[in-house]
Amino acid sequence: MTTATRRGFFAVVTALVLVALGLGVAFAVGDALGIRTEPSEQMQPAAAVVPEVAPPATPPEFTFDVPETARFGVAVDELLDAVADAPARDGEARVTVELIPGQEADSGPGDDGYELRGEASALHIFAFTEVGAVRAIYDLAAQVRAAAPITDLLGVHERSRLPLRMTDLGAVGVEPDPAEWESGDDYSHASKAFAAVVQPEAPYIDETALGAAYDDFEVFLRHSLANGSNAVAFPGFVEFVTFDDAPGGPVYADGDEHRDRALALRAAFAPFWERADELGVQVFLRTDMLALTGPLERALTDRFGSLDTEDPEFWQVYTAGLGELYEAVPALDGVLIRIGEAGAIYDVGGWDYYSALKVTTVDAVRAMLGAFTGQAEASGREVVFRTWSVGVGAVGDMHTNDASYEAVLGGIDSPALIVSTKYTLGDFYSWLPLNHTLEQGSQRRIVEFQSRREFENFGAFPNDLGPQYQWALQQLLAANDRIEGVWVWTQDGGPWRAGPMSLTLKSGFWQLYELNTQLAVELARDPDADVAAITAAWAREWFSDDPDTVEAIAQAMTRSREAIEQGMYVEQFAQQRVFAIGLEPPPMMWIFEWDILTGDSAVLDVMYSIVRDSGGGGVDAAIASGAEAVGAVEQMREIVSATDASSWRSPEMRESFISTLDYELDTLRLLEAYRAMILHQGQWHDTRSPAAREEWEADRARFDELAAGHLARYEGDLDHPAFNLTAAQLGVDRAERDPAMAWAARVLLVLALAWVVIGVLSARTRLVAKPGAAAACATWVASMRPWRARETTLGLYDLDRWLLMLVPVALLVGTRAVQTSFLSWTHLAAVLGAWTVFALVLRWCVGRRSPWPVIAAVGGVVVLRCIVTLVALSFTGPGGYWFAFWTDPVLRTAYVALAFTLFVWVFVAAGWALATQVGARRAAGFVLAAVGAGLLVPSLVVGAIGLERALTLWNDEMGLLPWGLARILGITTYLEIPGETAWYAAGVAAVLLGAGVLLALPARRGADSRG
Prior knowledge:
elongated; disordered C terminus; alpha/beta; 36 helices; single chain; five-stranded mixed beta sheet
């Protein structure tokens, strides 16, 4: 076999290997993206109906013959307040209570059934328990607030279907400070409850603020009891614990402020918990795990070697602290634990109390629950464990996966354990299926509901969830008799200060989402309750006694779900379960998250492809849905504004209702225009139809107009905050440049192809004698047969040498600039910086030898690599390039395979070209050293500035992933990229550089002679 034949054979084999590797990389990329969909089984609630509203009934003045206890006293106060709020009184009525002795043991202390006998002037309550009798008084108060006849309650009332009805803490201890809401971009999940109470230095408590917070808590307790709730989740745990009795000795040293602060906080808040206990409200301390302080983390690490959450003894430290707290404050009923979210977004800055996402394995969860339930059984308390979780494996999806739920919790049958799960198969979004994991398990269960729907503009829009709540509860109770309660989030969920400044019982139009709180609790008591009647009662309590006005409000609320579901979601996308990057993105990805209208290609391109393939008109149907939502709000506003202003309880309430409908109408019109624009944008990339581009232009003009109006009207409005349109505008800016970039790519592509054609022809014709043709010939031959690079560069004129270097460099810069729409200087700096370092190191290694062979080889392959990218860019610009990447697996695989093959061939060709000058070993060393240096420099830069910060800057300019991702969760956190990745890359680069240097060293003469 001749040398030429042997080289050709090796070249073919090398090329085939690289192609195979390229295909492997392409398939790995596709597998990592994991973009797929499957139909999502929708809930099937009954259609909302308008109730028949009767004329208002006038309540009597009440007198009482009831036991003198705190519970009865507060219930009587509520009834008297309801009567005082009524516009008139008619007659008198005496209420007497008779507790049937000897029956409580049989019925159970939680039996809240009762019987009401008598007539309008004399009402007799018979109950087996104080709980039942007190409930009767609250029911009378609710009847008065609903302007319904009190005699309608006469008869037997069975015990509540679900005995546990828990709420969050509402807005207790939260200061409605406008300055904290003005920016609208504070995505912290910390409520900052009691921030004014807890002080950084001794005595750690501001007594004046504490008194105000206690009054706050009292008001919330009374309100919750009137609604029918009987438990509260109170934030905090490690803040109240000294860990004096921790196994292995105290956690805090003598004089440690953590211990002193814990004692001060415990003394300050114990009266809160004792008051709740006095009124019959259970208190569960709500905490993330791991909950830590600096000394606690050091103590755990010193003892166990790490935060070893799989070690059962590890958890004895926490349960010992909990036991200490129970002994000090017997009023506490248990602890509520979440393991699925933690970190800075939930922490309060400046305090040495924080959380860490460390309970991530099945063994860790089971060890934790074993310790906590054992302690709970021994102390007569309960443990509420939330299945809400994120991450990889069974623990990561136990909230939505039946098998994972069983893997994590199967066999844990402690009577002290209650498992809490959201009713939706995911977060609190519309269009999600019912959470079927609530239908399984041997554990006691409670169902989570959210009143102030965080993803549907924090309750700022009318949103009557009654029919859906009812259907969900009825389905779940029919399937699982272990469900015994609900947990209703009256205020909490998501960032506290990124939406409207609506705080339950304090500020904003909180009465709007109070409806969902009342619905959830009433349905927990009676899943067959008349939800339309509950909505009417809510309207009467807060807005008007007038039947026509109440009916109008109820009628408007029947359209509220259509407006939300069609206006804030793209139905064709939301109806699918979408999977990507090992995660399950939610059904509202175009608003990521809460108030950020996204403009990234990954979400919008995948959304378009799903809409396109949905059938039934696809894009046109999706656009029409936005118009239908706008029409629903227009009808709602027309109905409410037509009511008689004098029939409302106050002009302010009517104005609040109409203003929120104006706000919703403006927002949904904006979303309608944006929906049309992004779908037509995808359609243009997909079909390259000029008509689609023209429609995009028209949509864009309308969106710009509506966006300007939206920002002018609502920016800075604390009750109706403007949506964050930064990401959307960045997307518009990139989309606007696509046609120009496509033409730029075509021009560069023609020039690049011309260069290659000249090179091909010059290698076989006399064209090589023309100015510049020799350079084109050298790059072509060197790229295809790098072992001939040296001979093809001999005798080049200065012009050819300059072209040999400048043409590939110019093409590389131009291609990358076009690929980024001239918007990402970060991308250009990283790519061109790495190539520059590679070239400089390689040039230094070559030394006094001719650099032109390796320049020709590398430059020739760079030209071919740029041609591949320019072909992809030439159709509809960078937007079309990424559209194909996200939505077309075949094109993505072909492109990645070819691009990877040519990328690696650059270095193979460089080594092969150098081998004719320095030998194969040293040539490989030169290339490895250059590659190592080229990777090392950007890795060190990224490591120095931080991977999250670098990725955020790059993504802001490129627009590939949601802009809000970095602001809310963090790109590295969401994608589970280790923060040290840049340093790992630097380590690999250093190894390559070192290996290259060793290989590049000249052989010793002695070794040569012996060889």
